[in-house]
Amino acid sequence: MYFVAGGCIFYEVISLKKISVIMLLIFFIFSANALAMKFYRSKNVGEITLAPSGIFEIKGAISNIGQPFTNPQFIKAYNFKKGNIPYNKGVAYFALGGRSIYFHYDSKNGGSGVISQIGDQDIKNTVSVGMGIPTQLNFVEASSSRYYILINSDPSGLIGPTHTVIGRQLDGSYVKYFDTADIKRKYFKDPRAFHLSEDVLFYEDSIIVPYHNTSNETQRGEFRFKWDDKAQWFGIEQVQVSPITITTTHEYYTSNITSDQRAQADKVAREIANYVLAQKNLTTDLDKVKLAATIVRKISFEGKYGSDPNKYYRTPYGVFIAKISTCAGTTTALGRVLEFMGYKWAHANKNRWTHQWCVLKMDGKKGYADPAFDISESVGYGEYQAGENAVRETLESQK
């Protein structure tokens, strides 16, 4: 009896262990999903400028603690006129959604001795950063319990903007994850020939920085900084972007869209094209494309901005019929209209984690058409760049 009872107890324990293992697996699965990194748009929280005179100019700080002082040695080193010139030092802090980040500054030594540290209130737990003219501080939201600061330095400089990302780790320490100035030197033989975009993009667990060659516009690409949860650090990938070519071959619909659904969307696209071409007062290609983009934009705003399981959002069917779209969808929708109007066009940034629009020739000139923005600014001749964050903010502000 005891043996049997013991056996029963034994099997009961095994059963409980199995249940415990299953429960732990479920916990870790859900925990992994809950803890998976996801970045959102950045919000500007302030600006720091180190003026030629050596004075830190700080905007957007909640508090700025410090007293000016004079430093004849600094004046002499920069060959300033004799006299007392105030220099400053102190601590300023900026609000980040209930948190604070501190900027420690001290220009008493001048030149390379200028102190500019960002991080904790305790200067020992800060990261040294270079100041540009100006330097923008942007709070990067994330789904984790941490937060990140994206520092856009000197966008007006000759070498274009540089980006630094620092963050607060789980143990409370501040670290610098990457600096694009260093990355440019590593990846490009002549870093000055490549400019980074001021519009940094956020896609799931990656921070994306587009770039282009200033002398050869066809050399474009992007750096993708992907968060590695295991390493607790960012990995880096350089992606080259193929030159934009204007063509008559486009895939407007995904494979799951039926022939009837395609016909419904194409009917709307043809109606728009015929309406635009019937306007005899429109004598230039630019005017015709502007009207077409205006109509597509209006229809897209009648629907929802976002994605859906059927992936209608990136097709003309999503814009015209299902009433859901992103910039990928408005681009293909306008492209379909343009094709019915007789234009060849190219899909800028197709299948990429960034903003998309149409490229085409109008009145013998290369131009662009983007129905996601205000048409007065997003249809025209020449080159065109737009940031995904700016597009999303524009769409949301008009809902």
User: Which structural class should the secondary elements be placed in?
Assistant: alpha+beta
Number of separate structural domains: 2
Largest sheet, if any?
6 strands, antiparallel
Shape: elongated
Low-confidence stretches: 1-34, 67-86, 388-399
Number of strands: 24
Residue-averaged pLDDT, rounded? Answer: 78
Short description, anyone?
Helices cover 30% and strands 32% of the residues.
How would you describe this protein?
The structure is a single chain. The chain has 2 domains: 39-241, no CATH class; 259-397, C8orf32 fold. Strands 2-1-10-11-12-13 form a 6-stranded antiparallel sheet. The model is unreliable at 1-34, 67-86 and 388-399 (pLDDT under 50). It is built from 9 helices and 24 strands. It has helices spanning 2-35, 72-77, 180-187, 259-277, 285-302, 316-322, 327-340, 375-378, 388-397; strands spanning 39-50, 56-59, 63-65, 69-70, 86-87, 89-96, 99-106, 115-119, 126-128, 135-142, 148-153, 162-168, 174-179, 194-196, 201-203, 206-213, 220-228, 233-241, 304-305, 324-325, 345-348, 357-362, 365-369, 379-381. The protein is α+β, with helices and mostly antiparallel strands and 399 residues long.
Q: How is this fold's topology laid out?
A:
Layout: H1 2-35, E1 39-50, E2 56-59, E3 63-65, E4 69-70, H2 72-77, E5 86-87, E6 89-96, E7 99-106, E8 115-119, E9 126-128, E10 135-142, E11 148-153, E12 162-168, E13 174-179, H3 180-187, E14 194-196, E15 201-203, E16 206-213, E17 220-228, E18 233-241, H4 259-277, H5 285-302, E19 304-305, H6 316-322, E20 324-325, H7 327-340, E21 345-348, E22 357-362, E23 365-369, H8 375-378, E24 379-381, H9 388-397
Parallel strand pairs: 19-20
Antiparallel strand pairs: 1-2, 1-10, 3-6, 4-5, 6-7, 7-8, 8-9, 10-11, 11-12, 12-13, 14-16, 15-16, 16-17, 17-18, 21-22, 22-23, 23-24
Helix pairs in contact: 4-5, 4-6, 4-7, 5-7, 6-7
